[in-house]
Amino acid sequence: MAKQVFRSPTAVVVWWIWVLFAVGNLIDLAVQGHDHASLVAALVLLAVTAVMYVGAWRPRIIADDAELTIINPVREHRIRWAAVARVDAVDLIRVRCEWPAAEGEQEGRKSIYAWAAGTSRRRQFISQVRADRRARPRRGPSIGVFGARDGGFGVPVGAP
Length: 160
Description:
7 strands
Protein backbone atom coordinates (compact mmCIF):
# COMPACT_ATOMS: atom_id res chain seq x y z
CA MET A 1 0.00 0.00 0.00
CA ALA A 2 1.32 3.43 -0.90
CA LYS A 3 1.47 6.15 1.71
CA GLN A 4 -1.91 7.89 2.05
CA VAL A 5 -2.43 11.25 3.76
CA PHE A 6 -5.83 12.32 5.09
CA ARG A 7 -6.54 15.88 6.13
CA SER A 8 -9.65 17.94 6.71
CA PRO A 9 -10.67 19.79 3.54
CA THR A 10 -12.75 22.17 5.66
CA ALA A 11 -9.67 23.21 7.64
CA VAL A 12 -7.76 23.94 4.43
CA VAL A 13 -10.63 26.07 3.08
CA VAL A 14 -10.85 27.97 6.38
CA TRP A 15 -7.07 28.50 6.24
CA TRP A 16 -7.20 30.07 2.77
CA ILE A 17 -10.12 32.31 3.77
CA TRP A 18 -8.10 33.42 6.81
CA VAL A 19 -5.04 34.09 4.63
CA LEU A 20 -7.09 36.38 2.37
CA PHE A 21 -8.48 38.17 5.44
CA ALA A 22 -5.04 38.54 7.05
CA VAL A 23 -3.34 39.77 3.87
CA GLY A 24 -6.09 42.33 3.31
CA ASN A 25 -5.76 43.60 6.87
CA LEU A 26 -1.96 43.70 6.73
CA ILE A 27 -2.11 45.73 3.50
CA ASP A 28 -4.60 48.11 5.14
CA LEU A 29 -2.39 48.46 8.21
CA ALA A 30 0.67 49.12 6.04
CA VAL A 31 -1.10 51.82 4.02
CA GLN A 32 -3.07 53.60 6.74
CA GLY A 33 -1.54 52.84 10.10
CA HIS A 34 1.83 54.18 11.15
CA ASP A 35 1.44 54.18 14.92
CA HIS A 36 2.00 51.82 17.84
CA ALA A 37 -1.58 50.44 17.75
CA SER A 38 -1.14 49.41 14.10
CA LEU A 39 2.06 47.57 14.93
CA VAL A 40 0.36 45.72 17.80
CA ALA A 41 -2.60 44.85 15.55
CA ALA A 42 -0.24 43.52 12.87
CA LEU A 43 1.63 41.38 15.40
CA VAL A 44 -1.61 39.99 16.82
CA LEU A 45 -2.78 39.23 13.27
CA LEU A 46 0.48 37.38 12.53
CA ALA A 47 0.22 35.42 15.81
CA VAL A 48 -3.34 34.35 15.04
CA THR A 49 -2.22 33.41 11.51
CA ALA A 50 0.48 31.15 13.00
CA VAL A 51 -2.10 29.45 15.23
CA MET A 52 -4.45 29.04 12.25
CA TYR A 53 -1.61 27.50 10.23
CA VAL A 54 -0.84 24.95 12.93
CA GLY A 55 -4.54 24.14 13.32
CA ALA A 56 -5.19 23.76 9.59
CA TRP A 57 -2.06 22.17 8.10
CA ARG A 58 -0.45 20.14 10.88
CA PRO A 59 -3.36 17.78 11.75
CA ARG A 60 -3.34 14.79 9.42
CA ILE A 61 -3.49 11.03 9.34
CA ILE A 62 -0.79 9.17 7.43
CA ALA A 63 -1.33 5.49 6.63
CA ASP A 64 1.37 3.31 5.12
CA ASP A 65 2.33 -0.36 5.14
CA ALA A 66 4.06 -0.29 8.52
CA GLU A 67 2.04 2.06 10.69
CA LEU A 68 -0.67 4.63 11.18
CA THR A 69 0.60 8.09 12.08
CA ILE A 70 -1.77 10.57 13.69
CA ILE A 71 -0.46 14.11 13.78
CA ASN A 72 -2.41 16.57 15.93
CA PRO A 73 -1.44 20.22 16.42
CA VAL A 74 0.71 19.48 19.47
CA ARG A 75 1.41 15.72 19.47
CA GLU A 76 2.33 13.00 17.03
CA HIS A 77 1.34 9.35 17.51
CA ARG A 78 2.83 6.42 15.59
CA ILE A 79 0.79 3.23 15.88
CA ARG A 80 1.83 -0.13 14.43
CA TRP A 81 -1.03 -1.78 12.56
CA ALA A 82 -0.87 -4.77 14.93
CA ALA A 83 -1.81 -2.47 17.84
CA VAL A 84 -4.89 -0.99 16.13
CA ALA A 85 -7.90 -2.71 17.67
CA ARG A 86 -10.70 -0.52 16.31
CA VAL A 87 -11.34 2.75 14.51
CA ASP A 88 -14.52 4.70 15.32
CA ALA A 89 -15.98 7.75 13.66
CA VAL A 90 -17.21 9.77 16.60
CA ASP A 91 -16.96 13.58 16.48
CA LEU A 92 -13.31 13.02 15.65
CA ILE A 93 -11.68 9.84 14.37
CA ARG A 94 -10.91 7.64 17.38
CA VAL A 95 -8.30 4.89 17.10
CA ARG A 96 -8.43 2.32 19.90
CA CYS A 97 -5.10 0.65 20.48
CA GLU A 98 -4.27 -2.51 22.38
CA TRP A 99 -0.92 -4.18 22.74
CA PRO A 100 0.25 -7.25 24.63
CA ALA A 101 2.24 -6.98 27.82
CA ALA A 102 6.00 -6.87 27.51
CA GLU A 103 8.29 -8.35 30.12
CA GLY A 104 7.66 -6.69 33.46
CA GLU A 105 4.91 -4.49 32.07
CA GLN A 106 1.16 -4.79 31.84
CA GLU A 107 -1.04 -4.94 28.81
CA GLY A 108 -1.70 -1.54 27.26
CA ARG A 109 -4.85 0.16 25.99
CA LYS A 110 -5.23 3.66 24.71
CA SER A 111 -7.65 5.73 22.62
CA ILE A 112 -6.16 8.34 20.34
CA TYR A 113 -8.26 11.04 18.69
CA ALA A 114 -7.27 12.42 15.30
CA TRP A 115 -8.10 16.06 14.69
CA ALA A 116 -7.49 15.69 10.96
CA ALA A 117 -10.82 14.15 10.07
CA GLY A 118 -14.13 14.11 11.81
CA THR A 119 -17.80 13.72 11.28
CA SER A 120 -20.82 15.55 12.58
CA ARG A 121 -23.54 13.89 14.61
CA ARG A 122 -26.02 14.78 11.87
CA ARG A 123 -23.92 12.97 9.25
CA GLN A 124 -23.58 9.96 11.57
CA PHE A 125 -27.36 9.89 12.09
CA ILE A 126 -28.04 10.07 8.34
CA SER A 127 -25.56 7.24 7.71
CA GLN A 128 -27.21 5.10 10.38
CA VAL A 129 -30.70 5.73 8.97
CA ARG A 130 -29.51 4.78 5.47
CA ALA A 131 -27.85 1.62 6.78
CA ASP A 132 -31.01 0.65 8.67
CA ARG A 133 -33.12 1.30 5.59
CA ARG A 134 -30.87 -0.92 3.45
CA ALA A 135 -30.95 -3.69 6.07
CA ARG A 136 -34.77 -3.90 6.12
CA PRO A 137 -36.32 -6.53 3.85
CA ARG A 138 -38.31 -5.11 0.95
CA ARG A 139 -41.96 -6.19 0.78
CA GLY A 140 -42.96 -5.06 -2.69
CA PRO A 141 -44.76 -1.83 -3.47
CA SER A 142 -45.84 0.07 -0.40
CA ILE A 143 -48.47 2.24 -2.06
CA GLY A 144 -50.99 0.91 -4.57
CA VAL A 145 -53.49 2.64 -6.83
CA PHE A 146 -55.11 5.74 -5.29
CA GLY A 147 -52.69 5.68 -2.36
CA ALA A 148 -54.11 2.50 -0.79
CA ARG A 149 -51.78 -0.15 0.61
CA ASP A 150 -53.69 -2.78 -1.27
CA GLY A 151 -54.45 -2.57 -5.01
CA GLY A 152 -57.17 0.04 -4.47
CA PHE A 153 -60.89 -0.60 -4.00
CA GLY A 154 -60.09 -3.54 -1.70
CA VAL A 155 -58.17 -5.48 -4.37
CA PRO A 156 -54.90 -6.95 -3.08
CA VAL A 157 -51.68 -5.87 -4.83
CA GLY A 158 -50.83 -8.28 -7.65
CA ALA A 159 -54.42 -9.54 -8.03
CA PRO A 160 -55.86 -9.58 -11.60
